Amino acid sequence: MKDYNLQPRFKDSAHFKNFWAKGNGKQLTYFSGAELSFNDFEKFSHFFYHVDEIGDEVVKDIYFKKKYSEASREIEQYIRNGVSENDDVPESVKKLFLQTQTTPDWLDYDLINKGAELCMRSNLDSLISLRDYCLIGGYDYAYLNKPLIATEALKKGAVKRLSETLDFWVNVTRYDALEVHKKGYEFAIKTRLIHSYARLSIKKHYKNWDTENWGEPINSWDMMATYIGFSLVFLHSLHKLGNTISAEEERGHFHLWKYVGYLLGIPEELLPNNKKQATEYFYLWTSVQPPSDKDSVLLAHSLLNESLENPILKFKFQRKNLRYLHICCTWFLLDDEVCKRLQIPKVPFQSGFPVTKRMINKIYDSTVSRETRIKKGNKDQMKVLQDYLKITQNSNFH
């Protein structure tokens, strides 16, 4: 493989400096107590050209030699029944499952459940955070989006993309979901292999892939940034929306996503233990990402207009109102500069809904018991997921 010498090429660019000096980057630094510097840049930068080779070998040995549906059924059997050293299976399959069936020394399932409780008890704020901060904010990083464009994610549509993200997130954030052979574990392994399948397909069919600038498709460093979105950025969003978070829940939340990242094949040294580490890691990664381009704007608008296309709500005025509320939350959660780059439309009274929500959350958190909030949050999130799955699994929906 060609040896690339990656530098923090955008560290003097306006978008990078403004984000970290006066935007959400500044808020994240204050929120986490991070100490920002480029001292560790070389320790992490080579991961821009590093990929999950174990996952790739499984895809070559199973998916590329059979029909996709047949290969998927075979992988499901391995996930649910396990693989042992003596099984007559390809060496790559053994390697993948012996890694993921072995729980690392640092794993604490009780702590993971504390993280899961935070995700559940934050109810619809969790879903707002994922959509209006984590997902849409991620579109501002132009190179990060290139695999989505290369695999023609826009043609698949935002409803389907959102449904898949929601399905994954809900299933890895329930009680005991990440124990070996359970539902969350299954989602993590399948997602890992989807990433490998997409990466190998891009390398085979997408001749214009610019490895030097964009990194390897779905590389380990980009994966780290994506999962910092699910941990640090998500936590910051809940905080901005007025949710109180205990120190134990915060530790549990990072522990949960560290283990999800481990199952997905992200190298352990890229998986932060806390918000301080996560912010410091994120700072280095953002220095190699340019701001939004035309693809970013298309992805952002596809997500914004998802509310209008989605038939979960029966009437047009309901869909338009939901889109309006998401726009309000996007402006509230993201930097103004990012919203302008993504061409998020301005709407009247745009801070009204999120500011009211923040006030209600503070009252709700102090008056309703934690157990009640966890139960209600789990129920409401499952209902949203079921609504999405009902629609996207209907073959007439495109």
From TrEMBL:
Record flagged with keyword Oxidoreductase: yes
UniProt-listed Enzyme Commission number(s): 1.-.-.-
Molecular function terms from GO: oxidoreductase activity
Keyword hit for Oxidoreductase: yes
Positions of the ER-bound oxygenase mpaB/mpaB'/Rubber oxygenase catalytic domain: 154-345
InterPro entries cross-referenced by the UniProt entry: Lcp-like (IPR037473), MPAB/Lcp_cat_dom (IPR018713)
Record's keyword terms, sorted: Oxidoreductase
Protein name per the record: Oxygenase MpaB family protein
Signal peptide from the UniProt entry: none
